[in-house]
Each structure stands twice: as C-alpha cells, then as structure tokens.
Amino acid sequence: MTRRIRFDLWTFVLIAAWAVLLVLLVWPLSSILRASLLDNETGAFSLIHYVEIFTIKAYQRAIGNTFIAGFGGMAGALVLGVTLAFVTTRFRIYGRALIQTLAVVALVSPPFIGAYAWIVLFGASGVVRKGLASIGISIPPIYGVAGVILVFSLKFFPHVFLITSGALAAINRSVEEAAESLGVPPWKRLFTITFPLILPAISASALLTFVLSIADFGTPRIIGRDFNVLATEAFNLFSGEVGGNPGMASALSIALIVLSMMVVFGQRWVLRKNVYYSNLIKKPERQRASGLKSVGLHVLAYAIVLMGALPAIIVVLFSFRRTSGPVFQPGLSLQSYEKVIATVSDPIWNTLMFSSVAVVAIVISGTLIGYLISRRPSVATGALDALLMVPYIVPGIVMGIAFITRFNNPPLALTGTGLVIILAVYVRRLPYSARSVAAALKQVGPNLEDAAISLGYSPGKAFMKVTVPLILPGILAGALMSFVTAMNELSSSLVLYVGRTITMPVRIYMSVMDGEYGTASALSTILLTMTVIAVYGAFHLSGRKESALL
Predict the structure, then answer these.
(1) For 499-512, what is each residue's pLDDT tens digit?
(2) Contact 319, 525 (CB under 8 A)
(3) How far apart are CA 63 and CA 271, in angstroms?
C-alpha cells in the first residue's frame, strides 16, 4: 500500500520557498559558475580563467590582498571586541548603556561611510593631517592596506563585542575560581580557562568579521587605492570598458565564494576539535576596580567605542560645514543639504521605496520559512535552512554580477529596473527575518497552536491568530534589521543600478569618488539618521540589544 503525500498549507509554503531560492539564488549563482567555465571569444568550455587566476600576478596579488584584508580586519576586530567585552562584563564600568549605544552607532553605519570619514580626517587633504602639518608634524595619508584594516577593525568590532559579551556573562565563575585557588595567574587563567570556554562565540564572531571584510567592496575601493582585492578586481573586470571581461569576473567571484566557504568549514572544524562546556552554576560578577586601574579600564573602554563611532560623528558634523568643491571651509552652512534636496533627492526616495518593498516581501516569506525551519523539521526543511546560509557567504558584488548575468536577457530581462535591485536585496536579507522568526519560535511552545487546531481552527488560521502574535517582537526585529541592512546595501546595487534607480549608498559612493564631500556628508547623515531610527525600533521591539543584531 503506497503512502499518499498530504498537501496542506505548509507543503505549499515549502514548495514556494524552494522555488524562490532556486530562482533568485541558485539559478543566478549557476550563471556565474557557467560564465567562469566558458571562453570569452569562442564560448567553448575552458578553464583558462582559473588558470589565469593562478598565473597572472595581478590576480595573485588580489587573492593575497583579500587574505590580508580579511585576516587583518578579523584580528583587529577580535582584539578590540573581546577586550571591550571582557572589560565591560568583568568590571564595573560607568555608562555601560552609553558604551553599547556608541558600539551600535559604529555597527549600523555603512563601512564605506567610515572609509570616507577617515579620508576627511587623515586623507591627502584631511583636516587632521593639515592641522598637524601646520605645526611641523607630517604623517602619511590613510590610503592603502593599513587604512583598509583600520576601517574594518573599527567597523566590525561591535559584532565581536555583542557576541562575546553574552558568552562571557554565561561562564561558570566557579571554574575560574578553582583555577585561581590552584595558583594559576590571571593572564594564564584568561588564555587557558576563559577563552577556551567562549571559543564558540569567538570563532563565530571571527568568521563573521572575516566574511564581512572580504565581502566589503566600498572600503578597499575608496581607501585602498592600489590595494585591490577580489571584490574590486571582479567589479573592475565586469564594468570595464568595451564590455569588460565577464568570464574572468565570474571566475574571481567563484574564488571569493570558495574562500568564504573554506573559512566557514575551518571554523566548524575548530569548534568540533576544541569545544569546552560548563554549567552556569555561579554567574560571573563584575568587580569594582579602584584608583589607576579603574581610570585605565574606563579610558580603554571609551577609547574603543569612541574610535568606532568617530566616523559617524565626523560625517554628521561636516555635513553642516561650508564647502568649496572637495575642500571644507570654516563656518557652518546648510548648503550641502540644500544641494541634496535640489539635485539628488531621487536616491533618497529610491532607497526608501526599494527597501520598503523588499522588506515587506522579506517579512511575509521570512516568517513562513522561519516557521517551517523551526516547527516542520524534515530533510527538505533542513536543506532549506542550509541553503539560507548561502546569502551570508556570497558577497554583494558577486550577487550583483550573478543577477545582471542571469536577468539580462528574456524571459526575465530585469536589468535596469528597480525590481532587480529589490530582488537582490530580498534574497540577500531574507535570512535575517527567517533566522529571527526561527529563534523566536524556540521560545514559544507549540501547545497553544495545537490547542487551537483541536478546537477547529485550520493550520493557517491557528498560525495567524495564535502563533504570530506571540512571536511578533521577533518578526518586527528581523524586519527592522532587514530594513537597516537593505538601506545600506552598496555592493550589489552598484552593479545593478542605472541612472533612474540609483540609491543613497551608490550616490554617496559616487560623491566620494568625485570629491563632492559636502554632498556625501549630507546624504550620509540622512542615511545614518534613518538607520539609527530603525535600529532603535528594533531594540525597543526585541527587548534585548543583542537579539536584534545577532
């Protein structure tokens, strides 16, 4: 007797979810792989592009630079983030709420805005460099590998701070006290007891910051100058004159994906080999430091978060400065905002419209997919959950190239429309909503929903009437964080936009590249303001700062 497959609401949701991801994720990425395996001139199968990656020095240098940027940004973020987390969780630091706020400001501001702000301060005509030069002190400009790593470190350390803070607060203090009673000195306890216990959190934040660093396009492009990485090389090849080199750009994109996946699997291998467990019998307590130690800890904590938030602060302040071309003049003025309103208001409306439409679709589908993952475990939903990891790994520039390669011809000729940007943002940010809903459902048992079904409600009605109200904070938090990241999307939009579909991040990037620093400051301030408002809403609705960001 054959078993009949039961088709209910969630079966159709599962089929639809797979269809969406196959069309908007797997299909475009397959075009990248296909293009990388074809000769540009003959169209025949060829490995020439991959051979060139390992034989042409420019590409070898780009791979090396990508590793340098990734590991440099990761190392800097780990040092700053773990240090700040340890200081704030183990010692009484006044103004912890302010420290968290400043860390969040650094977190939500786009990396390319940070790069631009550091140019304003320490670029060739930076105000700090000019001020130091006036008193006879000469320092090199920030351009190059050191500047890229500095920006990545200060931009991404809040991820490490938020993740490791929670882990440090969950350590069983008795384990550390036992080591102390055995005469183990403080620094040895830190590296042999404390850090191994929070290794999963450290490795997770390290993976996140590495992937974010190698996927970032704006910072190396703006501040790197001759420091080309895989993302910038792929963009240069794709957008070059006379049609570019799409085959080589695709091969470099595949290399970037493979590099990200290698790090993901490496992180999992480290966790599998080195994981330590402890029960939270005795919660850690923050110590009260005194004298010079207290002063030093406070200076250290505030110095880290102020350096991270400095780019956002500088951008806001300089948006009210007078400008003459690329040069800021003494005195305050609203001329930059007047110019934005008069000439570049379209990017603001495009950003709001594209982000809003994408987020509405993200909330609806992400809520349904999150429910499938959490409440309907199966091989199909497990594979769907794994597939949702791909948008985390694939850099935006790669996704943009994949979309323009796949959707440039019939039957889905979407290139040049706002819809293609919306779809790219949708598939890249869908995991935020799905993961947030799945996490919220773990805290809500299925009993009430089952009871509603037993009383005659259909599964869909029970879900809408019972489950959705219970997980509404998680839904809204995921939606707002999707909105924040959608508004700040640069990499994919830079490949996909045309004149009428330009967004704020793209316009800011172009303004910086053209030396229109006043316009860039005003637009950046508007973008930061919208971002902070959305993040505040996410914090308020989620109830916990960490849950809204992780």
Answers:
(1) 889 998 888 888 87
(2) yes
(3) 26
Give the bridge partners for 38, in sequence order: 45
pLDDT digits (tens, 9 = 90+) for 178-199: 766 776 776 777 777 777 777 7
- Tell me the C-alpha to C-alpha distance, in Å, between residue 301 and each of 190, 228, 290, 549: 18, 33, 15, 21
Q: What is the DSSP letter of 3?
A: P
Q: What gap in Å lies between CA 537 and CA 531, rounded to an integer?
A: 10
Structure tokens at 382: 């497990």
Structure tokens at 230: 């895989």
- Measure the CA–CA gap between 89 and 32, rounded to whole angstroms: 45
Q: 219 with 201: CB under 8 angstroms?
A: no
**Token pair for residue 303?**
């110095």
User: Which token pair is 459?
Assistant: 């599964």
- For residue 331, what pLDDT band results from cuts at 50, 70 and 90? confident
Separation of CA 46 from chain center = 34
492 neighbors 403 (Cβ within 8 angstroms):
yes
- Both tokens of 192, joined, read 């042999």
Rounded to a whole number, what is the distance in angstroms from the first to the last CA of the chain?
48
Handedness of CA 340, 342, 348, 350 (dihedral sign): negative
Q: What is the Cα–Cα distance from 249 to 267, expressed in whole angstroms?
A: 27
Strand partners, 91: 287
The number of beta carbons lying within 10 Å of the beta carbon of residue 360 is 13
Helix runs in 319-443, H state only: 335-343, 346-375, 379-387, 390-393, 396-406, 418-441
DSSP secondary structure letters along 230-295: HHHHHHHHHS-STT--HHHHHHHHHHHHHHHHHHHHHHHHHHHHS------SS----B---HHHHH
Instruction: Read off the tokens for 281.
Output: 């019998």
Q: How confident is the model at residue 332 (pLDDT cuts 50, 70, 90)?
A: confident
C-alpha 44 chain-centroid distance:
37
Is there a contact between 524 and 313 (Cβ–Cβ < 8 Å)? no
What is residue 194's DSSP assignment? I
Quote the CA–CA distance of 85 and 96 in Å, as a whole number. 11
pTM: 0.78
Residues contacting residue 62 through CB under 8 Å, at least 6 positions apart: 228, 229, 230, 232, 233, 252
Q: Are strands 327-332 and 321-324 parallel, antiparallel or unpaired?
A: antiparallel
